[in-house]
Amino acid sequence: MNLSILTAAYNEEKILPVFINHYSALAESLLAKGIINNYQICIVDDGSRDNTWKIIEDFHEKNSKLGGIRLDKNYGLHTAGATLIEWLEPPDLVLFLEVDNLLSEEDLINLLESMGKNNFDTIWVQIKERDKFRHLLSGIIFNILSFFYRTKIPPNISGMLITGEIFEKLKREKIFFINYSIAKISHNSAVYQVKPVNIRRDKSRFTLIKKLKLFFSITFCNIAPFLCKKNVKIVKERMCKNA
After folding, report:
1. Where are the beta strands (DSSP E) in the chain?
2. Which of 206, 33, 49, 192 is nearest to 125 (CA)?
3. DSSP per-residue string spanning 110-121
């Protein structure tokens, strides 16, 4: 199987090298063990003002399996992620991850094995432990979204492993919120809990205000999607070679 690891980054010059080194080493280990046949790591630079894109370029020069795209300005996590989905060709398996979260090799192997044995099309990677207030708030927001859209959206998600078939369906979707779009089109999904391994030393950027803005923007975009369409411009690209 070919595995694609995707993430979005905005002004992440400090932690992006940690993410890249970690998952490059992890993927090479899985490759050597014959668990995967090939891999690529693709990153969308969401209009960063620091050296995020230079880091992607530098790593691409060393390893052509790593690459990505740079957007002309900051559009937000879900629009950036949707643009990366449109840009890529569908692989066998896709692992979406937050740039500040690391999975252990054991967890990733368990995810891949569970996907194959149970014929899941989606496995949600859920953080097991979080601040009680954030945990409660996330639960409330995602329960409201699940009720409103009649689709179960798990809270405290730090990543998703999906099949190439789900990825192809995503490419045809009008994506305003990746988690919701995946939940809507998945037929056989599961939740896999992991312990938090956050490499960001400062506080999370996903604050209360951002949670509420996300909630209202998702609701608004699903009521009036024509008003939310964004003409995203890709200004630079470095191909991720899954070969």
Report:
1. 2-9, 38-45, 66-71, 93-97, 122-127, 157-163, 189-194, 234-238
2. 192
3. HHHHHHHHHT-S
User: In this structure, how many other beta carbons lie within 10 angstroms of the beta carbon of residue 127?
Assistant: 21
Contacts of 209 (CB under 8 A, 6+ apart): none
Angle between helices 164-172 and 77-87 (to 10 degrees): 110
Q: What is the rounded distance in angstroms from the CA atom of residue 156 to the CA atom of residue 239?
A: 31
**CA distances (Å), origin 36, targets 7, 92, 93, 120:** 19, 10, 10, 17
In the Cβ-directed half-sphere of 93, how many Cα atoms lie within 13 Å?
Answer: 25
**pLDDT at 196 (0 to 100):** 64
* Residue 123 β-bridge partners: 161, 190
Domains and CATH numbers, the chain: 2-238 (3.90.550.10)
Amino acid sitting at position 170: L
The tens digit of pLDDT for each residue in 109-132 reads 999 999 989 999 999 998 775 556
pLDDT tens digits for 6-50?
A: 999 999 999 999 999 999 999 999 999 999 999 999 999 999 999
Q: What 3-state class would DSSP assign to 233?
A: coil
Degrees to nearest 5, angle at CA 214 with 233 and 139: 140
